Amino acid sequence: MLISFMVESFFKIAANLKNISRQGWVDKLSIEKPESVADHTFSMAIIGMIISDLENLNSEKILKMILIHDLAESKIGDIVPEKMDVKEKQKLENLAFYEIIKILPESMITKYTKIWKEYQENNSPESQIVHQIDKFEMALQAKIYQSQGHSEEKLEPFLESAKTSITHPRLKELFTKIITEN
User: Fold this and answer.
1) What does the mean pLDDT of the chain come to?
2) Which residues are within 8 A (CB) of 20 and not within 5 positions of it... i.e. 6 or more apart?
3) Is the whole-model pTM more than 0.85?
């Protein structure tokens, strides 16, 4: 019964990502109802599933990494880079992440902490592809907003950020295709 309660509490915390707006779209485009962090994570999961299968990568690890990479934002919100020092943001995210997962069974805490740290260290093939999928998804969303009439000039920094971050050949090819479409 206690484990059911803990897991249910975790689900509610994670579900809060549906209420957290992606702050960059609010700050830079003044979008009143932008995608949520949950929207972003879902889109990343679909991209991650396809890319990991196309490239014969560890799909399970990639999908778990995608699903937890922004989990801390359910507690602290989506903090854009301009608002806080990178190290301070990472410290805040770590505190929130550990606070969230501490209600899970110990075996899960160990497993998810390992994936979380691997994502942050960005030194494995899976973590590197997830970071690039994050940027790719942002570029894809920027193009969606552009097709809805948002300023190409205001969207350019998002696309440029993705362009400099995406190095994986398949993602780079897909990125080039989406940014050249109207």
Assistant:
1) 94
2) 36, 37, 38, 73, 74, 77, 78
3) yes
Report CA torsion sign: 74, 75, 77, 82: negative
The answer to whether 132 and 30 have CB atoms below 8 angstroms apart is no
Mean pLDDT, residues 139-165 = 94
- Going from the N-terminus, what domains does the chain have, and what CATH number goes with each? 2-180 (1.10.3210.10)
> How far, in Å, are 19, 26, 32, 34, 163 from residue 146 at the CA level?
23, 14, 15, 13, 17
Q: Which two tokens stand for residue 42?
A: 């879902």
CB 140 within 8 A of CB 134: no
**pLDDT(1) > 70:** no
| Positive or negative: CA dihedral 154, 16, 116, 94 | positive
What's the DSSP call for residue 85?
A: -
**Among 125, 138, 126, 146, residue whose Cα is nearest residue 165:** 138
* CA–CA distance, 73 with 62 (Å, rounded to integer): 19
Residue 68's contacts (CB-CB under 8 Å, 6 or more residues apart) are 97, 112, 115, 116, 119
Q: At 52, list the tokens.
A: 């990991």
Contact between 135 and 172 under an 8 Å Cβ cutoff? The reply is: no
% the chain with pLDDT above 70? 97
